[in-house]
Amino acid sequence: MSIIEEETQWLRSTILPKILKDGRLVDNYSDAKADTFQVGDIKIDVIGHAEAFMLTFCYRTTINFEYDGKNLQRKMVVKKTPKVPPEMYDSIQFGPLFSNEINFYTTILPAIQKMADGKFAAPKYYYSELHKHSAVIILEDFAERGWRVTKDRVGLSLEHAMVAVEYLGKFHGFTYAMKHKNPEQFAQLTSQLRESRYANEEIHHDWNLSYQTGIKRAAKAVATYQPQIDKEFVKKFSFLIWDYISYGKRRVAPREPLATLCHGDYLRNNVAYKYRDQPEEIFSTQVVDGQIVRTLLAINNNPPEEPLEIMMFDYQTLRVSSPMIDLAVFLAISLYADVRYKNFDAIFERYCFSLYDSYTKHTKDTTIPEFMSHAELLKEYVRFLPYSVSITASFLMTLVEPEDMSPEEMFSQQVTDEEIIEMGMNKGGELVDREVAHQIKEMLELSQRCGVSIDDGIDVDKLPKV
Fold first, then answer.
1. Separation of alpha carbons 318 and 206, rounded Å
2. CA 196 – CA 98 distance, rounded (Å)
3. Which residues sit opposite 44 in a β-bridge?
């Protein structure tokens, strides 16, 4: 039996009846009408790496069924852990990842929707399972409501960036307000979140080698493309982030009063946009007998995409941390320097304005706490730049040059240390080298501008010696 046949049978016989009885498949479910439920055709379309980088097995499914004499259809996205050995499963921390996402949809989201009057955009939740070494979550296919991920995996436009940071400021302002107005409820809602990246004391050898190779490549790229940068600064940066777990655990740890609820992995892969899709009318304008006359010349049925709204999904890395984890990661991994660098001040101001507007709206306060000031947030952004640049150094190459293989194939492939190093030093080519080097330049400039060291807030004496 093929994997598609297995999944079809699993949905038909096991999952759909459960979703029906839970009252999530139809709005008018009744036990008295349960025998009218008949599943018809099921179509499955596996989501590949050409669309987004994933460690999970994901597919879209279109399900036709009959209930209470009506022919109905639902479109869903199924996300499952891949079939990997238990030690690999634990190393990747699939348990905490899926636990956080399930917790978001079943506990945190309903509370957010109540406080936001149901206006918080999120995919509809259908079903989930969490076992020791397997997990699944089923959500609606948000494409049905006009949402979609961008065509580009990286290098988004300024227009995309502005929509993204405005929404992010709105989200963080809301979570700050939630924490300010009802700290006990905030603590209760976030109490079940699990550390999904730095809980293990050891990291898989292959991933650690790849990560540290990325750091060496970044240093080499700086020497080539940004040679004016002091070598001691590059050494300081490399030492700071060298131990993935020790640095990451310390950097993301919640620090008051800045800590709030954050997405934790806010980048292109985990957001969807809505676009203005109406045809563009092209006019000529002239003055005739003292009157302005507009004449329709043509209709462009394929106008440039204009992003209007954005929605987060994939809440597996949800955490209480500094809001700058989200902003720094998005700007590092979703934009290239040609957009981010020259527009940074405008982008940062858009985020801050949205944050303040959301916070004051939901708290009814007229003043902004000092820790949320533009100056203090910019300093905090600098503190998180080594974190975001470390992700660029190890992950950008995968977005620029994605692998065409399933998660199972990716986890089972046997590669030598030499092959890992060769790939880590060269994958993605000059584009990756220039981008990483430029991000280190930006980090240095902002550190000097704000008077904040990149290791501020980190007890470097407790980091392993390199």
1. 25
2. 9
3. 61
pLDDT of 304 higher than 80: no
Decide if 58 contacts 46 (C-beta within 8 A): yes
CA–CA dist 347, 250 (Å, integer): 27
* First-last CA distance in the chain: 51
Length of the chain: 466
CA distances from 394 to 193, 198, 299, 403, 413 (A): 26, 16, 45, 14, 19
Residue with tokens 């293990």: 200
Question: Which 3 state secondary structure label does DSSP give 451?
Answer: coil
Beta partners for residue 282, in sequence order: 298
Residue 212: CB atoms within 10 A of its CB come to 20
CA atoms lying within 13 Å on the CB side of residue 406: 13
β partners of residue 60:
45, 77
| Closest among 424, 430, 429 to 393, alpha carbons compared | 424
Which residues 6+ apart lie within 8 Å of 346 measured at CB? none
Position 299 confidence tier, pLDDT thresholds 50, 70, 90: confident
Segment 455-465 shows an average pLDDT of 90
d(CA 90, CA 273): 33
| Residues facing residue 136 across a β-bridge | 80, 129
DSSP SS3 for 413: coil
Distance CA(387)–CA(3), nearest Å, equals 38
> Number of H helices and number of E strands within the chain?
17, 11
In angstroms and rounded to an integer, the radius of gyration of the C-alpha atoms of the chain is 24
Q: Which residues contact 192 (CB under 8 A, 6 or more apart)?
A: 99, 103, 107
* Identity at 309, one-letter amino acid code: E
Cα angle 67-72-75, degrees, rounded to a multiple of 5? 125
Cα(443)–Cα(449) distance, rounded to whole angstroms?
10
276 pairs with which residues across the strands?
306
Going from the C-alpha of 437 to that of each of 24, 213, 331, 349, the distances in angstroms are 49, 15, 15, 25
Q: What pLDDT, in 10s, does the model give residues 383-399?
A: 999 999 999 999 999 99
Q: Is the pTM value of this prediction over 0.90?
A: yes
Cα 322–328–329 angle (5° rounding)? 105
**Burial status of residue 84 (CB atoms within 10 A of its CB: 0-12, 13-18, 19 or more):** buried
DSSP 184-226: HHHHHHHTT---SSS-SSS--HHHHHHHHHHHHHHHHHHHHH-
